[in-house]
Amino acid sequence: MIDDLRFAARIARKNPGTTLASFFALAVGIGSSTAIFSVVSSVMLRPLPVPDGDRLVRIVASDSRREDDDVSMADYLDWKHTAHSFSSMAVFRTLQETLSGQAIPERILTIETEWTLLPLLGVTPVRGRNFTPAANQPGASHEVILMWPFWQTHFGGKNVLGDRLLLDEQSYTIIAILPKSFTLLGRRDVLLPVSIDPGRQENKRGFHSYEVLARLAPRVSIKQANAELASLAAATARAFPQENKGVSAKAIDLRSSLSGEGIGASQKYLRPALLLLLAAVLCVLLIACGNVAHIHLVRAWSRRHEMAVRLALGATHGRLFRQLLGEGVLLSLAGAFSGLLLAAILVRLFRHLPINAVPRLEETSLDWRVLLFALTAGILSGIGFGLAPALRARSMDVNDVLKESTGRATASRAQARLRQLFVTLQTGLAVALLVECGLLINSFIKASQISPNFSTDHLLTLYLSLPPSRYNARDYVSAAARLDALLHRVQAAPGVVSAALASDLPLSGTAPGGGILFEGRELPKQFWSAPYVVSAEVSPEYFRTMQIALLAGRSFTDRDRFAKVVIINQTLAQRFFRTQSPIGQRVAIASDNPRWQEIVGVVADAPQGDIEDQVSPQLFFPLTVPLAPWVAVAVRLKGDPQHYVEPLRSQIAKGDRGVAVFLPRSMTEIMSKQLFWRRLQTWLVAVFALSALALASLGLYAVIAYSVGQRTREIGLRMALGVSAERVWRSILWHGIKPAIAGAAVGLLCGFAAAHLTARLLFATSAGDITSYLAAATLVLIVAALATFLPAWRAARIDPARALRHE
After folding, report:
1. Separation between Cα atoms, residue 421 and residue 705, nearest integer Å
2. What b-and-e string marks burial along 520-553, b requiring 16 or more CB atoms within 10 Å of the CB?
3. Under a CB-based contact definition with an 8 Å cutoff, are residues 498 and 544 in contact?
4. % residues pLDDT > 70 (the chain)
């Protein structure tokens, strides 16, 4: 075997052109596919970094009116006390709180959790202790656990156990530090104990704001757990129809949940998108392997005399078989190792992409699964390259080969058909990728052309934390005055055209919702059946600052702060009032004691969440004091919004140093990030599709060029007998276009099937969009014609006299 490998290396050095071409194709194919597979492995295949992670599930609640899958505290407590399918459960939610007691207040991400969460995940603090069950009871002492990155950045890794931390003006005692390896819950800063108090408003049934993790009991399957959850949810819906009618519950494998399987929220497109990228890059790898296989076939044909001589001198067919197979494996393994270097570079780039929707992306690495994938791809490729020449050597007739003339020898029809099959398959894969690429490009163009119905230029958005002691609904007159003072400071800052406050901004996805009632119409028997709408509270300057058009009626004024008035969006007006004017009509949020408010205006629609989602009916109320401990600020500026962040931060600090400014972003940046994943996905598929097209065209060129070289004597003889150069040119051109046409037909069918499998990734584009199919087929046929043109042109210029003397 060592002799075979040494001989294979010598053969590779003697043919540097074909060796480098094969090496480059394999390195690109294996490297790119390994990089994408590493992301897929991290998200979908790698076990969770917790003991018995395959027994962990996420319990979600679904409501026909909501896409959110959070659960209510009351429902969770019912499940915890009655469900037998789980050995342990834990509830938690992510919040934002203001870290004060330092020079500049800072908004940090916190997790309010039950004490059972860390034992459920098998996590033990590296310092200190976990919460106790008493920490979740009403009136318990305030304790906090620090995540490792927060401990390092804010305390430099010092011993801070027992020190105090000031969050939302509440003092907490630091009791523990979590290990550096604990990243399952994402980038959070601290853990706080959640108050399991049924009397709290946010803990009542119908308020879906919590996440639930659970561990399956021994010998209990997810199917059995879901059957029990469905029974419990149905019983709860019968007992509490007002809050839980139509609410169901189910358990999802936690790892699958992280990859977007089985949920209806922000990650629902992640799994098909990753699978599409993996399929695309595997197509590139197959095309690269096809090119290298053709090179090996040609090289084996050119070495047939060498093989015949060795057989005549006593070499066995098994010896030649092993040698040719070794040459293919050696080359493919070299390509695999080079591909791993390329994959390492690509993985490093992926880990630094700002893709929050891809969980565990920072954990992406070349682990044993990825290495096994690359090694398997290399070995299988090498076997594939060497197998066809090796089988050809086994069936070789030594006498015929030794007697044939070098100049007269041409490849067999079987070999010609095999090479044409390679071209057909390569072209088909390229067409299928181009079809998918065209559909994604069309979707991206349509998504980027969506108008948010307000001007995003020179618009800065930021959020202000509101210390509870000075901004609360119990003293709303004083709190409203402080809010006005903050807003006036922002409006007075240099470069500010206008500014407004709001409880929620467009494209944020945080707008609360509820049922709506219409005065004078039949009220629903149950509030859960009332039409669902989202709502926001805004200051009088909001619509002018956002430049949202007023379609009817009037906007808010300063006198409307405590008035019973409301403004609706165009979708609500069209859906519920049709041809009737809504101005002067009265509506209310569904409740036992509805507060009727008069509609005074209608404004244009603005997307509340994802730019691609359908706009929901929306109510706008005058802003008094936000219920949340923060308020959003929209600022229309004269110049680049990024230049005004620090001046505005200083201006706000002069009014109230306890207010933290967080998430300062321009609306243009928000719009761009909304389309970032679609842009990246489209760009990657386009790169893979163009790479596939380039490799397929090179394969076609190599096949036709080699065919012309083999047929030099035949072409010269035909031209000597009177065949015109134009006819020769057309014949060679058709010889190259024919397998490309067959490949295009196969590729269109494959592309059609793939488009329907990935239809959920498309936006405002049909999976059968004829333009994308025609464009893909036309592009491939044009490239095939160009790849065939040069060999055909050379064939037409053959000198018959020289060709007939050619040996």
Report:
1. 16
2. eeeeeeebbebbbbbbbbbbbbbbebbebeeebb
3. yes
4. 88
